[in-house]
Amino acid sequence: MEPRLHLMTNDLGAELGKRFADVSLGITRSALPRSTQELVMLRASQINGCGFCVDLHTKTAAKAGESAARLHLVAAWRRSTVFTGAERAALALAEEGTRIADAHPGVSDETWAGVREHYDEEQSTALVYLVAMINAANRLGVIAHHEGGSLPSTGLA
């Protein structure tokens, strides 16, 4: 399947992409651990079926030192032993924040309490923005038909 649209090849797309990247850069620079960020982005991308983003975040996480076992178990994080309590709280938020459109009731008080148990105000803010931004990125990729599998395994940020 060919991409429907190359989002960065026109002036408007380039301008919007820059602004989108600026928000993402703010999240990246936050105190929220980078490994947690990658796990959250990977899980939301799996749920949304964005092959490009699954490919990107799997490879980026691996390059940053994430183990293959943990990457393979992200989809089954609730039934695995390789994630910390803090990572589990972030993954729960990612799932509940992503499944809003599936008639899910949203983020439960229990999930939010888990987030606040492990993350301070700034980290929680970064986590909420991260879930929103990866969901937006997934939608861009799915709508434009950006597929996974073509990204190199090395050289990623």
Task: Describe the 3D structure.
- One of its GO terms (molecular function) is peroxiredoxin activity.
- It comes from Streptomyces corchorusii.
- This is Alkylhydroperoxidase.
- It is a single chain.
- By secondary structure, the protein is mainly α.
- The chain has a single domain, classed as AhpD-like, CATH 1.20.1290.10.
- Helices cover 63% and strands 0% of the residues.
- It has seven helices and no strands.
- The chain has helices spanning 11-28, 34-48, 51-63, 68-73, 85-98, 109-118, 121-143.
- Helix 2 (34-48) packs antiparallel against helix 3.
- The radius of gyration is 15 Å and the shape is globular.
- The two termini are 26 Å apart.
Report on the biggest sheet: none
Low-confidence spans: pLDDT under 50, at least 5 residues? none
Large-scale geometry: globular
Count of DSSP-assigned helices: 7
Provide the number of structural domains: 1
Helical content (DSSP H or I, runs of 4+): 55-70%
- Tell me the β content: under 5%
Order of helices and strands: HHHHHHH
CATH topology: AhpD-like
Assembly of the depicted chains: single chain
Content-based structural category: mainly alpha
- By CATH, the superfamily comes out as AhpD-like
